Each structure stands twice: as structure tokens, then as C-alpha cells.
């Protein structure tokens, strides 16, 4: 597939546990087409988040290669990987991972300022991103003044604020009640409709079913793909 | 788009903005908000630590130096003046004294001049109470000085040191002022190597013997200072004293000049030497004439001050290191998140450097306010009563700026190192708290 935005080849990841070695991902091979909304499911401890961390460049595999947008990023330096995350990737974490001293708009603006965008323009873009996730009126609230669902939407706004090519979401609905979780997922569906590639880890089958494609991880293998 | 251009575009995506201005801007953005929204009590605590550290650096060494400076100031004010002219080593008195005095008085910048006539002698008390001829005399060797009370007062304010009785006047006859170190009741030690007179007070009669000539005089006043040269002297009015020692040529032993404020003593010294008076007298600035032990103590206390300051600085650096380290460790997860969303580690490190700078500058400013608006005026008004000096707090703007610079450098290093340690950790480990 020439329009694949992600190509994973022979990806293996293991962790040392005392004398023994625990293999979490075994020789995985898959591709993600541009614009796809992909979910990765599996039981707790199956390696879903580990896989997301590898392709999201937050961690390094033991072996194998990862190509994003035609560029082999697996052997790049830490600084280059940081640069790639800044310019091309967006992250939504399970526990929102907002910076507590920054209010909503500032949390969204940080990566934009790091990109060299002026503060005023970064704030404008942040307001736009917050509006897209329906949180435009709470732009000056600190994370501690927001509900879990609102924090997750700020986290989503931060992930999309700098217009990345891919969004990685790690269990974005895990800490939310069903109503709020639905809202967050609808936000992702909206973003996907706008052309974004989204890779979401979830252990909830009903949310996985709402995505275009589902990959299931078990014992370090991709055992099912729909 | 050609495949090469496409690849270049892709490679660009790997680039973290390396422009220092962007790194600085992001670091500043983070630092300002972290300071502004952190617990105010934490900020107050850190600034207090920095203020105390600054005071430790400035005040401890300032008091150590001030202790000696107090002694120097005492000698300068009450004994040496700004210029001290004394006998050449091979002469018993200063020749051409009147010419020197006259020239000095006419020099611009010279405010007052006084001349002292000095002889060694003995003073004796309680001689009327001696029961037998073989009883030991209650006598002590002393430096006897003849002074013009008005001139001496203008130069050294000697009368301010009179703690009992009155200062002598020009026309007093057979009346003297005695230094407290010659009298037992003013000493808090009793040493056989340090003879003193017993039971001598105001109105007591004592005998003064100089070169075989003895006169009975009345104690009119008693001086007490922290300058040994004064407290071991007996002061006569000049006229009677010159008659007593037969000094009719008006050649003095010590000539002391008080200069106008801001006049360079070295320039006056050079002028007097250029007049040729160096052939007749030793012309010294107060600094030249300071006793050697004072110079040695100055150096000793400066070294001691530096050692204590260095220890204070090390304590400050370790304190700020711990504070920033704890701050960085507790914020390790957020540092990981910032890196995770693409914030360059240098921007995060810079934000911690800025925070350290903020605490160091604020602490130093608070310290300056305390030093210059409270401690310095207080110690100037109420010097510390050390046994040999009235200790003041010596702080110079230059010295303070140096210490601020040193404190800031130490603080920035102490803030940067822990931030660097945390930023260098694996991003995912930091996010997951592993």
C-alpha cells in the first residue's frame, strides 16, 4: 500500500524481569493507511499501550523498523524523535496528562510555542482547537478546575492543536463515565472525518467497534484484524 | 513534487526548532506559569532560604571585616587621623615641626592639624600611703603626651573618650587626663606583666616623672577607648608639658592631620614629601601607619570571611539543588509529558534555570533591602561592643554585587543540574513513573 502513513516491520519488544525476559510484542508487521481510524484492543497486559508507545516514538523497540510517512524513524536520535512528535504526532493519554500549572489554552499552546509560533497566534490556534472539542468557554480554567471529561477534551485539543498527521490515544475513555466517554469518542470520529489518522488503544469493544479497523493483541501477537 | 523534495520535507519533520530564541521563549513561558501558579508558601519558603543565604554571605563576612574595621576606625578617629607624621627612626623628635604644621595648614583639603609632644616617663600613686621606705612604689611606666586641647579636640575628639571627670584645657596647670589602661579599676584582668595604679580616681594626686623631673599633678579626667595608644597615655596641656621637658623649639613628636571628606590622603602625603619634609619626618597615611597586628588581622579576618562565605555558598548551592531536585523529581511525570508532546529538553531545563534565577534574584533583592535599610543603619547606630573595637557592618556595593553574582551562578548551576538529570531520563519512564 503506497498511501500507508505507518509501516511496522518485524517489531519486537521485550522487557527484562530479573533473570527472565518478557516478550510483549512478537515480530509484528502491519501498516496503517493515511486517514484511518484504527483501534488496538486486547486484555489488560496484552501489550496494547506498549505497541502504541513504540509507534508513537515514546519508546524504542528491541528490533524491527517503524516508518512514518515514508521515513524510517526507529533508529533516529532522541532529539529527532522529539522533533517528530512535536511536528507530526498528537497524544491523548489515559490520565489526560495535562500540566497542572497551565490553564486549558496554555496547555494547548505549549507545543505551538515550541514550534516557533508567536504566543498570540499560538493562543488563537489553541482557542480554535478548544472550540473544536467544545471547550471554548473553559479556556482559562486550570486542569484542577475541570471535570475528567473536560480534561480529556483539553488533552484532545492539545493533540490536534498543532495539526499533526497522526493522533495516538491511549485508553482515552478509561477514566470517564459512559456519557463523557461517548462525547470524547464522538470528538475523535469528528476529527477522523476531517481526515486525521487516529490510532486508539481501548479495552472496550463497543468503542473499538466504532472505529474503521480493529486489531487485537494477545500474547504479543496480532491475533485478529478486522 | 519530486521524491527528493518530498524526502526533504519529511526530514524537516524530524527537526526540533534549534533557534535559541524559541527554546528560551518556551522555557520562559513554562517558568513564569510554574512560578506564578505554584504554592505561594513554597515560593516564600524558597525566597526566604535564598535571602538567609544572601545574608549569610554578606553579613557574616561583613561583621568579621567590620570587627577589624571598627578597630581601624577607632585608631583613625582618635589617634592616627588621616595623615600621621612622626619622628624619623634616628631622631628623638620631628625636626622642622613648625614648618610642617604651617605647610599642612595651608594645604587645600587639610581641615585640622594637631601636634603632640611625647616623652616616656613614670607615674606614681598612693605614695603618701607608703608606710616604709622599702615598700614597693605604686608606679607604672607610661607615655606622657603634651597636647593643645583645642587642636587635639578638632582632630581626634579626644574629649569624647573621657568617661570620668573633664578634659584638660589650654591653661590648666598640674592637671592631667589619664588613660584607663593605667588604672586597675578599669581593667578586667590582673597580670603581673601589666602594672597599673590602684585607687586612682578624679581628683587623685599622682606623681609624673620625666627624665628625672617630677611633678605632682591632679587627675582631671580619665579616658577610655578601644585604642591602646590612648588608654596607656597621660595627657598634659602642651604649654606646661613643653616646659617640663624643656622642649622650647616647638618641635613635636607626632603631627596629625584631619582632611576634608573625599580628599585623598595619598595626595596630601605626596605633597608633603615633595615639599622635602620626608627628610625630617616620617609622613604616613593612616593606612601606612596602622599597627602591623591590625594589618595582619585585617587579612586574617578577610580570609576567615571568605572561608565562611564559601561554606555559606556551598550550603546555598546544596539547598537550592535539593529544592529544585525535589521540585523536578515530583514533577518528573510532567517533564516526561512535556517531552512526550515534543517539548525540547533544553526548553524544560531553561525553565528550571529561570526559576532558579528568579529565586536567587528575589532572595538577593530581599537581602539587599534588609542589609541596606535595616542592618547597616542599625549597626552604624549601635555598633557591636567587641572587647577591642566597636564592630560595624562593612558592606560595599561592589562586594554585594560580587556576592549576588556568585550566588546567582551557584544557584543556576544548582538548579540546572537536577533539571538536567530528570530531563535526561527516558521519556516513557518519566510519564509512567517507572
UniProtKB/TrEMBL annotation, chain A:
Q: Extract the SMART domains matched here.
A: AAA
Listed A to Z, the keywords are: ATP-binding, Nucleotide-binding, Transport
List GO molecular-function terms, semicolon-separated. Answer: ATP binding; ATP hydrolysis activity; transmembrane transporter activity
CDD domains in the record: ABC_MJ0796_LolCDE_FtsE (cd03255)
Q: Which InterPro entries match?
A: AAA+_ATPase (IPR003593), ABC_transporter-like_ATP-bd (IPR003439), ABC_transpr_LolD-like (IPR015854), MacB-like_ATP-bd (IPR017911), P-loop_NTPase (IPR027417)
Query: Which Pfam family, an example, fits this chain?
Result: ABC_tran
* A single Gene Ontology CC term: membrane protein complex
> Gene3D superfamilies per the record?
P-loop containing nucleotide triphosphate hydrolases (3.40.50.300)
Q: Does the keyword Nucleotide-binding apply?
A: yes
Q: Where is the ABC transporter domain?
A: 6-226
Keyword flag Cell membrane: no
Q: What is this protein called?
A: ABC transporter domain-containing protein
Record organism: Candidatus Taylorbacteria bacterium RIFCSPLOWO2_02_FULL_46_40
Automatic annotation (TrEMBL), chain B:
Q: Check the record and name the InterPro entries matching this protein.
A: ABC3_permease_C (IPR003838), Lipoprotein-release_system (IPR051447)
In the bilayer, the protein is annotated as: Multi-pass membrane protein
GO BP, one example?
lipoprotein localization to outer membrane
Q: Under the cellular component aspect of Gene Ontology, which terms does the record hold? A: plasma membrane protein complex
The UniProt keyword set, sorted, is: Cell membrane, Membrane, Transmembrane, Transmembrane helix
**Every ABC3 transporter permease C-terminal domain range:** 307-426
Transmembrane residues, as ranges?
A: 44-68, 301-329, 350-375, 395-417
Give its localization.
Answer: Cell membrane
One Pfam assignment: FtsX
Q: Where does it mainly reside? A: membrane
Q: Which family does it belong to?
A: Belongs to the ABC-4 integral membrane protein family. LolC/E subfamily.
PANTHER family in the record, alphabetically?
LIPOPROTEIN-RELEASING SYSTEM TRANSMEMBRANE PROTEIN LOLE
What's the protein called, per UniProt?
Answer: ABC3 transporter permease C-terminal domain-containing protein
Recorded source organism is Candidatus Taylorbacteria bacterium RIFCSPLOWO2_02_FULL_46_40
Its ancestry begins with:
Bacteria, Candidatus Tayloriibacteriota
Amino acid at each position: 500500500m503506497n498511501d500507508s502513513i505507518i509501516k511496522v516491520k518485524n517489531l519486537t519488544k521485550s522487557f527484562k524481569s530479573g533473570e527472565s525476559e518478557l516478550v510483549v510484542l512478537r515480530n509484528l508487521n502491519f501498516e496503517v493507511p493515511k486517514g484511518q481510524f484504527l483501534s488496538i484492543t486486547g486484555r489488560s497486559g496484552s501489550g496494547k499501550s506498549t505497541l502504541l508507545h513504540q509507534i508513537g516514538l515514546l519508546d524504542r523497540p528491541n528490533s524491527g523498523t517503524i516508518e512514518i510517512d515514508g521515513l524510517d524513524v526507529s533508529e533516529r536520535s532522541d532529539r529527532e524523535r522529539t522533533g517528530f512528535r512535536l511536528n507530526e504526532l498528537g497524544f491523548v493519554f489515559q490520565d489526560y496528562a495535562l500540566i497542572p500549572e497551565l490553564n486549558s489554552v496554555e496547555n494547548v499552546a505549549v507545543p505551538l510555542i515550541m514550534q516557533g509560533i508567536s504566543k498570540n497566534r499560538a493562543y488563537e490556534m489553541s482557542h480554535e482547537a478548544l472550540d473544536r472539542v467544545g471547550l471554548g468557554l473553559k479556556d482559562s480554567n486550570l486542569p484542577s478546575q475541570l471535570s475528567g471529561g473536560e480534561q480529556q477534551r483539553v488533552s484532545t485539543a492539545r493533540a490536534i492543536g498543532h495539526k499533526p498527521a497522526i493522533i495516538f490515544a491511549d485508553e482515552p475513555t478509561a477514566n470517564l463515565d459512559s456519557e463523557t466517554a461517548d462525547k470524547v469518542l464522538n470528538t475523535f470520529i469528528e476529527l477522523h472525518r476531517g481526515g486525521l489518522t487516529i490510532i486508539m488503544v481501548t479495552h472496550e469493544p463497543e468503542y473499538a467497534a466504532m472505529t474503521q479497523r480493529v486489531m487485537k493483541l494477545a500474547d504479543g501477537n496480532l491475533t485478529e484484524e478486522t | 513534487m519530486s521524491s527528493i523534495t518530498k524526502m526533504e520535507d519529511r526530514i524537516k519533520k524530524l527537526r526540533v526548532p534549534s533557534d535559541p530564541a524559541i527554546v528560551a521563549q518556551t522555557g520562559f513561558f513554562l517558568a513564569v506559569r510554574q512560578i506564578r501558579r505554584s504554592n505561594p508558601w513554597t515560593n516564600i519558603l524558597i525566597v526566604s532560604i535564598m535571602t538567609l543565604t544572601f545574608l549569610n554571605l554578606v553579613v557574616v563576612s561583613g561583621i568579621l571585616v567590620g570587627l577589624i574595621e571598627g578597630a581601624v576606625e577607632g585608631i583613625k578617629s582618635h589617634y592616627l587621623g588621616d595623615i600621621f607624621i612622626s619622628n624619623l627612626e634616628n631622631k628623638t623628635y620631628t625636626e622642622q615641626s613648625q614648618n610642617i604644621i604651617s605647610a599642612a595648614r595651608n594645604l587645600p583639603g587639610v581641615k585640622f592639624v594637631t601636634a603632640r609632644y611625647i616623652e616616656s616617663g613614670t607615674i606614681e600613686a598612693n605614695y603618701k600611703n607608703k608606710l616604709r621606705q622599702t615598700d614597693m612604689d605604686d608606679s607604672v611606666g607610661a607615655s606622657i603626651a603634651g597636647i593643645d586641647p583645642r587642636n587635639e579636640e578638632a582632630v581626634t575628639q579626644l574629649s569624647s573618650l573621657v568617661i570620668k571627670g573633664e578634659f584638660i584645657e589650654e591653661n590648666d596647670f598640674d592637671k592631667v587626663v589619664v588613660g584607663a589602661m593605667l588604672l586597675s579599676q578599669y581593667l578586667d584582668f590582673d597580670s603581673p606583666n601589666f602594672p597599673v595604679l590602684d585607687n586612682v580616681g578624679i581628683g587623685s594626686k599622682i606623681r609624673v616623672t620625666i627624665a628625672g623631673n617630677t611633678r605632682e599633678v591632679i587627675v582631671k579626667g580619665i579616658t577610655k577607648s578601644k585604642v591602646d595608644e590612648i588608654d596607656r597615655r597621660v595627657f598634659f596641656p602642651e604649654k606646661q608639658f613643653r616646659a617640663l621637658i624643656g622642649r622650647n623649639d616647638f618641635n613635636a613628636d607626632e603631627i596629625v592631620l584631619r582632611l576634608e571628606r573625599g580628599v585623598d590622603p595619598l595626595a596630601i602625603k605626596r605633597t608633603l614629601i615633595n615639599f622635602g619634609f620626608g627628610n625630617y619626618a616620617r609622613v604616613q597615611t593612616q593606612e601606612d601607619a596602622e599597627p602591623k597586628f591590625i594589618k595582619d588581622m585585617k587579612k586574617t579576618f578577610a580570609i576567615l570571611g571568605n572561608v565562611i562565605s564559601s561554606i555559606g555558598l556551598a550550603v546555598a548551592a546544596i539547598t537550592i539543588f535539593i529544592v529544585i531536585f525535589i521540585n523536578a523529581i515530583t514533577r518528573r511525570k510532567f517533564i516526561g509529558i512535556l517531552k512526550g508532546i515534543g517539548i525540547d529538553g533544553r526548553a524544560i531545563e531553561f525553565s528550571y534555570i529561570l526559576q532558579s534565577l528568579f529565586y536567587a534574584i528575589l532572595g538577593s533583592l530581599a537581602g539587599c533591602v534588609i542589609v541596606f535599610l535595616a542592618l547597616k543603619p542599625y549597626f552604624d547606630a549601635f555598633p557591636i561592643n567587641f572587647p577591642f573595637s566597636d564592630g560595624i557592618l562593612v558592606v560595599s556595593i561592589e562586594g554585594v554585587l560580587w556576592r549576588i553574582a556568585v550566588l546567582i551562578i551557584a544557584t543556576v548551576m544548582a538548579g540546572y543540574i537536577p533539571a538536567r538529570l530528570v530531563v535526561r531520563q527516558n521519556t516513557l519512564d518519566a510519564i509512567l513513573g517507572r
